């Protein structure tokens, strides 16, 4: 399935997806890496890997609608069927999300529905949870909401800082995002009544 990855920065999850998609029989091919920031470090990795890249600086557009129209055109012209958000720091409107319904997935660094939004590791430590992690989910207009495809849990250790916890969660992210992409692109994941059914996989 022709897949685009949208990033805004470092792009370590994008890298994990690109690397996974190199495996023979992986059901997604990464056709495009797109950033809303020209200085996103991940763009260099993608270009070096021979993947088409695009930059759409959101500030160049007079409105969210204009930005999203350009984004939509770029994706459709590239024949994209599936979008992976990987540290893409722009909220997508209801209209955009509906236009790509069940064809946009995101990774969030918490066990949703806990800790939507930013600074998740700091908030997990402040709350005193013993288990933290990451979630890959289908995107809905509500931020960090939508049917959950897979989650990766990590322990919170007594001496954790938000940095040490972030490292452990990021390692889980790099494991679960390729798995989620393989399920979605391989049509093993289906949304029924806003829950994900995984076919032929242990539940
Ligand atoms: C990750 O923690 C991801 O879960 C969140 O933003 C961060 C992006 O990191 N949405 P990277 O750009 O993939 O390295």
Automatic annotation (TrEMBL):
* The keyword tRNA-binding belongs to this UniProt entry's keyword annotation: no
The enzyme's E.C. designation: 2.1.2.2
- Record-annotated Formyl transferase N-terminal domain positions: 1-181
Catalysed reactions, semicolon-separated: N(1)-(5-phospho-beta-D-ribosyl)glycinamide + (6R)-10-formyltetrahydrofolate = N(2)-formyl-N(1)-(5-phospho-beta-D-ribosyl)glycinamide + (6S)-5,6,7,8-tetrahydrofolate + H(+)
The record's section on SUPFAM superfamilies has: Formyltransferase
User: What does UniProt list as catalytic?
Assistant: 108 (proton donor)
Q: In which pathway does it act?
A: Purine metabolism; IMP biosynthesis via de novo pathway; N(2)-formyl-N(1)-(5-phospho-D-ribosyl)glycinamide from N(1)-(5-phospho-D-ribosyl)glycinamide (10-formyl THF route): step 1/1
- Kindly list the positions annotated as binding N(1)-(5-phospho-beta-D-ribosyl)glycinamide: 11-13
Residues with site note (Raises pKa of active site His): 144
Q: Which UniProt keywords apply?
A: Purine biosynthesis, Transferase
What's the domain of life for this entry?
Bacteria
Q: MF terms per GO, please? A: phosphoribosylglycinamide formyltransferase activity
Where (6R)-10-formyltetrahydrofolate binds, per the record, is at: 64, 89-92, 106
- Gene3D superfamilies linked: Formyl transferase, N-terminal domain
**One Pfam family from the record:** Formyl_trans_N
Record flagged with keyword Transferase = yes
UniProt cross-references to NCBIfam families, sorted A to Z: PurN (TIGR00639)
Q: Which HAMAP family match?
A: PurN
Q: Give the protein's function.
A: Catalyzes the transfer of a formyl group from 10-formyltetrahydrofolate to 5-phospho-ribosyl-glycinamide (GAR), producing 5-phospho-ribosyl-N-formylglycinamide (FGAR) and tetrahydrofolate.
Family listed: Belongs to the GART family.
The name this protein carries in UniProt is: Phosphoribosylglycinamide formyltransferase
Q: Which organism is it from?
A: Rhodopseudomonas julia
Gene giving rise to this polypeptide: purN
């Amino acid at each position: 399935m022709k897949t685009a990855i949208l990033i805004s920065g470092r792009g370590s999850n994008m890298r994990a997806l690109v690397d996974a998609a190199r495996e023979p029989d992986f059901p997604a091919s990464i056709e495009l890496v797109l950033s809303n920031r020209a200085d996103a470090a991940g763009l260099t990795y993608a270009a070096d890997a021979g993947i088409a890249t695009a930059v759409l600086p959101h500030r160049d557009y007079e409105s969210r609608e204009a930005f999203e129209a350009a984004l939509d055109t770029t994706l459709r012209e590239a024949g994209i069927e599936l979008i992976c958000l990987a540290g893409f720091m722009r909220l997508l409107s209801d209209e955009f999300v509906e236009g790509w319904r069940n064809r946009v997935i995101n990774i969030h660094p918490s066990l949703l529905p806990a800790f939507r939004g930013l600074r998740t590791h700091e908030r997990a430590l402040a709350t005193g949870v013993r288990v933290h992690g990451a979630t890959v989910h289908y995107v809905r207009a509500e931020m960090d909401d939508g049917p959950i495809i897979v989650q990766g849990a990590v322990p919170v250790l007594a001496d954790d800082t938000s940095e040490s916890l972030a490292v452990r969660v990021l390692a889980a992210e790099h494991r679960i995002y390729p798995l989620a992409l393989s399920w979605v692109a391989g049509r093993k994941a289906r949304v029924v009544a806003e829950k994900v059914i995984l076919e032929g996989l242990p539940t």
